[in-house]
Amino acid sequence: MTKTNAGNFFEDFYVGQVIRHATPRTVTTGDVALYTALYGPRFAVQSSDAYARALGYPQAPVDDLLVFHIVFGKTVPDISLNAVANLGYAGGRFLAPVYPGDTLSAVSEVIGLKENSNGKTGVVYVRSTGYKDDGTEVLDYVRWVMVNKRDPGAAAPAPVVPRLPECIEADALGDAVPMLDTIHWDNDLAGSRFRFSDYVAGERIDHVDGMTVEEAEHQLATRLYQNTAKVHFNQHTEGKGRFGKRLIYGGHVISLARALSFNGLGAAFHIAGINGGRHVAPLFSGDTVFAWSEVLETAEIDGRPDVGALRLRLIATKNRPCADFPLLDADGRYENDVILDFDYWALMPR
Amino acid sequence: MTKTNAGNFFEDFYVGQVIRHATPRTVTTGDVALYTALYGPRFAVQSSDAYARALGYPQAPVDDLLVFHIVFGKTVPDISLNAVANLGYAGGRFLAPVYPGDTLSAVSEVIGLKENSNGKTGVVYVRSTGYKDDGTEVLDYVRWVMVNKRDPGAAAPAPVVPRLPECIEADALGDAVPMLDTIHWDNDLAGSRFRFSDYVAGERIDHVDGMTVEEAEHQLATRLYQNTAKVHFNQHTEGKGRFGKRLIYGGHVISLARALSFNGLGAAFHIAGINGGRHVAPLFSGDTVFAWSEVLETAEIDGRPDVGALRLRLIATKNRPCADFPLLDADGRYENDVILDFDYWALMPR
Amino acid sequence: MTKTNAGNFFEDFYVGQVIRHATPRTVTTGDVALYTALYGPRFAVQSSDAYARALGYPQAPVDDLLVFHIVFGKTVPDISLNAVANLGYAGGRFLAPVYPGDTLSAVSEVIGLKENSNGKTGVVYVRSTGYKDDGTEVLDYVRWVMVNKRDPGAAAPAPVVPRLPECIEADALGDAVPMLDTIHWDNDLAGSRFRFSDYVAGERIDHVDGMTVEEAEHQLATRLYQNTAKVHFNQHTEGKGRFGKRLIYGGHVISLARALSFNGLGAAFHIAGINGGRHVAPLFSGDTVFAWSEVLETAEIDGRPDVGALRLRLIATKNRPCADFPLLDADGRYENDVILDFDYWALMPR
């Protein structure tokens, strides 16, 4: 009997299965500093205790995506160690603010299974929940991954494909933000004179700047999240693999694009929900990430006179500036340089 | 109307203009740890709460240059996003100690403007001030940058060139250091048996060690400071530019040279003033930084029996050891390998 | 008289000499976050305040190897700046838990000296002790290094070779771990269902995963530890040297291998003693580290019903997976790819 974790294969999962993931993690100001060094975010609420306190937070909350990556990282050894591909996200909600000192754990429930027709792989749908040690839920989201079967001859389970929301309802947003005293929202310090009412559906924003990624950077990030997916770290093996090089964690791209989006969305201080996301193409060390956003929808939130919600489509490219908003080609396929298509709700002060 | 910050051009500035910069920043022990990892400083006062407390600080203060870089970083989106060159610094003073937990913001006043004769660029002089959220000023300094005009045809403003001090008066130094109980200064723990009275004007010190810089390192540093200058991060664009590669933030060089200077200046625990500084040549990833110092002047400070001031000229080179103190050639020009000429006041225990 | 530290040469040491090392260092959650980012450790006790508290710690202790590296780093400027080789470790014990906020200092005593027959170098044996500012000892260990003589003509001292224990006694282990309330040890959160009684002497465990090292990573780590050994940082000089490249700090390898060993030894939460260690071959940037462990011995600890001790031999390789447990060749020499042979005691819950 081996002591080593070989990860779960497709036939190890069953609908209704609940998996408590390893390694609870206390988030600290050290993690916050590293997150800043890795991506360069400039949102005032997460950067300044003083700014956050003036608005009604007890202190600066931890960046939403840092919370996401930590929760996601915990799920990897159990859910996706034998994954061929991370297919998508849906139904993500940030449910409570996270502060330095909070300890995060994660649990996943298998909510769907569908073997692929090749008999070699199957799709596993899990709802993962991150929570604090007092039980407070801070995040839940669904992701689905294509996982190898251990034994191609194993019988296929009855297919269960969960119904996933195309989009989180606006009124379900905002639980991770206390009621804000927006009279203390300072546009100069926030770095943008544009607020909720200044954005309209259909508007496109080129975030202009580009960020080149180094191997050391994405490895530091992915280890910080205690994400153990093999493809990110092992050049000896990956050098002989599909791409000949290490693959960058998809979440690294989301964080880079989000940080770039400050230039044009400086008041979009909080990611309240993740409607969907796809990693359209891989990113490698040496590539330069650019990003642009489209405002898909603007929505008021019931009971929240302080903030409004923008539904945003965040597109990231590699080695291609986004002044012309690259997305789909004439045949409706993603253009070659597009690497991320991420649909989320951001909150902005009204 | 674009939502994106295009930065200010030369004709957007006017003398007397006051700019409140974005993104207040709470400094944490996480930032301090990263600063240590990036440069390897070994000054005992900043490294040890216990050592600092024995001397009279409430806890270890944050490294002066970390404060400088954070304040500087805030000014970039408003002052130097369209800068062609960062021409110099003067009149810098550290005014109060900064501790983990303090939140820093920055404001700049335009104190001079002079269009260049080519009509395409002009020099902007700003005095930038960093302050805590209770209003305490922690740093002010002047820098001047060459900034592009948006429209070469725009009329030139009346030239205003501020008078800048060649050197901070010694008696104006030390506000960021409480009166120290130097009986608790421990030479062994400080890593140097030499104190203020052991140094004489004219003395030259080779700091011996060299430090090679990697892309990931300077990018992590510059993002940590939330400095958004494009030339540091974007290989896609810089690869086609003047140097064919990313340019390293000049402040990174200052911090590397300062950390190297511990070897020979271990008791010079505090940078009290910045008299002037020039980035003589660019630094790139893969280059190795060396440094040497000349003691320009030694000065007592009125009312301070605890500490004395050394005026130091810190020279950094790339790919050239400094045993022969490289500086100027026979024609009075900087030698090829010199990259930094930095004139500052350091405090030492007496 | 030069102000620069040239380090000690062989003839500067004498048996009984006590050296107080420079730069006390307050360990913070920032250091902990960086340690996580550098190696990706997943041991629950060090990762989670909540998990540690449930067991009886006041908060999560700092990773043992981070403590080791910080103490080790302090000794470098005095002991091994002129070292040719770091020959070995022995007799290491972790004596008290270290928490963020604790300030660490180090002192070394020279316990042995032996000039080599070539007359150019000698071996220096030191016992180094790390302690908190209240005097609590947290770690002591012996290391021996080959150090250059300043003057090959200097007379050899009388040879003194200390008797070193081959192995720490099991009953001397565990001082750095409070009595644990192991009813709260949660296998799921700890990431392993195997505990002390599940391991047997002779058992071999392949840790499977590989980790490729980048220059920026080991430089960040080694500077974080304020370790000033020249060979790790200076490509200008090392490029002309023995290997043509920078040499990675041996401790970096130990930490990588230890983090990899979580996969198979997830409950081995604490390094209680270091019996011996050798850096068999150098590691360079771009190499991929793999590891495997052999259980040498299992031992109960007198008075400790909560934890047992595993004596482990941790072998690291470069660019070679460890499924076949590489170690010695037919002639009893280390195989080419082996880089570390590390003999230590780990504690596990019973």
Automatic annotation (TrEMBL), chains A, B, C:
Organism of this sequence: Polymorphum gilvum (strain LMG 25793 / CGMCC 1.9160 / SL003B-26A1)
> Do you know which Pfam families this protein is assigned to?
MC_hydratase
Gene Ontology terms for molecular function: lyase activity
Protein name per Swiss-Prot or TrEMBL:
Dehydrogenase with MaoC-like domain/dehydrogenase with MaoC-like domain
Question: What Gene3D superfamilies is this protein classified in?
Answer: Hotdog Thioesterase
Lineage in the entry?
Bacteria, Pseudomonadati, Pseudomonadota, Alphaproteobacteria, Rhodobacterales
Write down the SUPFAM superfamilies for this protein, in alphabetical order. Answer: Thioesterase/thiol ester dehydrase-isomerase (SSF54637)
